[in-house]
Amino acid sequence: MASSRNRSQKGVRGALTRRSMLSRLAGLVAPPIMIPASALGRNGQAPPADRITAAAIGIGGRGRYVLRWFLQQRDVHVVAVCDVLQSHRDAAKAMVDQHYQTQSCVPYRDLRELLATQTDLDVVFISIGDRWHALAATWAMRAGKDVYCEKPSSMTVAEGRTVVDTARCFARVYQTGTQRLSEPHHVLVFELARTGRLGRLHTAYAHIANGPTVLEVRRERPEPEPPPEQLDWDAWLGPAPWRPYNARYVAGAWRGDVDFHTGTIGEWGSHTIAQCLQAIEPPATAPVLIEPSANFTGNGTRLRFANGVTMILEAQSRRWRGACGEWIEGDEGAAGTADGYSAPDVSHPALLRESRRLLSGYQHRTGRALDHVRNFLDCVRTREQPVANAEVMHRSMCLVHAANIAVRLQRPLVWDPAAEQFRDAPDANRYLSRAARGPWVFG
Amino acid sequence: MRSVYQIFAGFAMGATLYSVANVPSPRTEADSIAILAQSNATPEAIEVALRHLAVHSTEASIPHLQRYLRMAEWCDFARGALETLDHPDANTALRQAAENASGRRLLGLLDSLGRRRDELAVPLAIRHLRNEDPDVAAAAARALARIGTESAIEALVRTASELYPPLPAALTEALCGTADECWKRDITVGHVAVVLAALERGPPAGHQLGPLLRHRVVCNPGTNCADWIRAAPNPVAQQIAAYRLWTDEFPPPSNLESTVIADLPEPFRSAVLAAAARTASDGAVSLLLDLSRHTDAELRRSALSIAVRYGLPTILPRLWELARDKGTEDAAHARRSLAGHPSTAADEFLVGKLHTALNHDDLLLALNFLGQRAWAPARDPVLQYTGHLETTVRIAAWSALRDLVDADAIHRIVQCWGDRSSPEENTAAEKTLISAVARRRRSVSDVPLVSQLSNAWHAASASARPSLLRALHQIGGPTAVRLVADIAGSSHESLRPIATRLLIEWRDPSALPWLEAMARTPDSSATHSLALRAVFRLTAALDVSAETKVAKLVEWEPLLATEDDRRAWLAALGRAPCVAALQCARKFLSNPNLGDEAAAAILQIVNAAPSLPRDVLRPILEEAQMAPISPRLRADIEHWLRHEPPPPPGLPPHHRPSIYPACAPEGTRTIASTGQRSREAEP
After folding, report:
1. Is A311 helix (H, G, I), strand (E, B) or coil?
2. What average pLDDT score do residues B411-422 get?
3. Which of A258, A259, A319, B314 is the most exposed place for a label (fewest CB within 10 A)?
4. pTM (predicted TM-score)
5. Can you tell me the distance from the alpha carbon of B401 to that of B380, in angstroms, rounded to the nearest whole number?
6. Which strands sit side by side in the sheet containing A310-314, from one edge to the other?
7. Which of B84, B111, B180 sits opposite A441 (nearest CB)?
């Protein structure tokens, strides 16, 4: 004890011992502890405990566009990407890694493998081809993930019902990428209609894409080609019926094909019918009379609701200066908007006088952000229902499918939303589901 | 949004494929059957026939479809046709095919049999519950869950007790599905058996705890939910479990108490509270009220916010109680919540508070909330308070009315338009009146409205009259202009300047005769000059030919006293595109102080009317180029002279198609029919 005190006193006086010298040297040469700024939430990222971990499923052109939206959110951390095409995986991984300045993004070829191994994921965002949307969303929700899925939310009514039931059974937050439901100029139109400023509503116009809608006649298959090694063709097809590979399908020719696409009505109508429904708020369970257009484009198809409002599907219209618009008419005014508008077109300018108040009223009433991705992420935290939740989207997609079926059969049909069936139309009801190809069946 | 280019490229490629060739669609079921019966049918023809039968088949097609079930390439198409065919023989065909199938084909057939709820497929599905291919075993379990007969349930339960633990996820999901089916079909014994089989030895490894636990609570209401939730394998499973307990499918359990909720972490706690609020049951309400008095401020506010979000009216007295405290965070939160409560019960509650308010502060608070909420039926009760003895209450009432009033309320406002001594009250009342006027319907004539305001004018005190003038200005039209002009020419010393100012600011051509009279009156004040400029502005905006406008403007030239007057005059000339205007403007090009204005007017005319004769335009522009004008204007003129635009063809140069085509459907009322907006004919 005494000797140690003596040594210590020497040290205090300044004599340099071997041990004190080593300890001082250690202080000089020891590397500082490096804590990355990201771990402290100082590089524009939220601290790890506050982050929502995410994975991107389907990362082609559209998928990377959505991925960019999510990367911009400071509380989201994308940890994995998944696609059946090698080139898409590589491009998306490079994009994520460059954003975070790491090499940690994990690429997956098989969605099931992603869901089984990435157990800590909070959300997935799905931008694969339309045929896969409902199945991928169902699998992800069964695995306990919240889902942001591109439109359309389903290819058939039965698929849509499965998505709704799964979201409810597993208490998941589900949002479809119908982002116009959260854009201020569209929300303003909904609020003008909802608050009675347009008077008694009578007509709603929903913008649909140009071109023929899907036909029953199968198109001539392009020449079969051997699938490239970097593509899992079987998984690309997923639940759709088998057909041999051709590069044009992957390049975009799947659009307009009944196995992969919901036609011109589904292409834009999956946005715009939902938009019109937000504005006109028809009774949820009352039947809807669907009068198809006299051609296969769907242009001019009318949906008559029990509250007296008629929704007309319009393509090639001068009503809008942009894509995916809606136009709502009432006894006392009219309002509508589309892509590229800064404010809605209205029948008289006084309707826009209270824009700010209406928008803040909407936010106050619903607690929803005027940003679709943000609304979804907020709901992931609060467990509230987002604006384009599974039930809302299923209701509007049912009308998309019903309109498509009426156009195919070329006769008026009565859609019963409560039973999710057509009344007195057994042939039409056979379109409401379709057998999925094994093993890509719904659980 | 997907790029439009991408979408149309896809459609174009699809359309190209379509246009290459297509197989004619069979018209009848017999056509399709005939194709399927041919030994030399092409694959394209077979596929078209099978797709046709998916919608148009009857029992006549079943034998043919059955044959194609055996072919791997066509099995899915044939199965699709049989799956939706309402005939028992379709079940037989699918079962027989499944007997000899394996792998993906078997999986698909089991899936179809399950969807058809074929009770006779139960033995087949039981046999495959232990298939070495896990995907097939899962399909068999799902099929049994969908079929849901006693034997199917028994098979699932037996397999679950033999395999457990660990139970494969597919089997747990199947048990979940079976429990749901039993619940829907009121099969009590099967329900209990399934739930016990899945849960009796502990929570499942996946996320099925929630759905199963919910069923367990139904079987045994005494189940200790909190313990089960804590035992969940991971936070997500825990969250689902808690959430499912409060969904509105089942009666809510009684043993989730506020102390249990308070211990839960976020966002799990909010999720449970939100789900509770959604049920709006008595238990949920008392739970939220309990929590609104909790010591943890965050929890207190969270409970209140959730109750407000779901519009629970029973929370309103508590919110009012909190809102009355001043300066605390809870009070601020409660005030926001009261203003944003989505139910009309909140409006009725506040109107009730208005009538029963015991003190001045309560009255102000209720008026403030009613104003923020803008509930139309609250208008009349609030209007009564504009005649209150206390000035602060009157001001609060006028402010509250601002968003409550529309044109229908104007006569009531005018009735209450009494004497007001306070400037604050005047301002509040005026804003309300202007707000009401702005909300008048365009389809209804303004004449009665002007008459009401005119009557009110005579009854109103001097301090309240300027507001009526401003309201008249807002309405416009010849009658309103005449009333304001009369006052501008009257001996009202205090009102004359206001009326004159309003007349000058008017953009209504009806004001032109009065303004001309004012401008012709020799007056050294600024009013004369302002009136002159208003005359030029309105003359340029008249719906007459450009030549007529110039003729009217030239009449005023001798009265231009100042350079500012001349500038305004030149600007008006620029809006009358004709040769006469050019010649008038040309005279000022050499004036060093007005050259810029003259050149600007000339350029404006040239751009607006390129069809004017070139032999007149060019010399004037060349003269302007040489005049003492700013370099920017000179550059513009030089540019025009160098790149003289070609004269336009027949159509007017700025013709734009209307975005409101006149293609309203028959029997619907268009905006044009209400006179609110004229629709141009569709080009």
Report:
1. strand
2. 68
3. B314
4. 0.67
5. 9
6. A345-346, A333-337, A326-330, A201-207, A310-314, A302-304, A288-291, A413-416, A421-422
7. B111
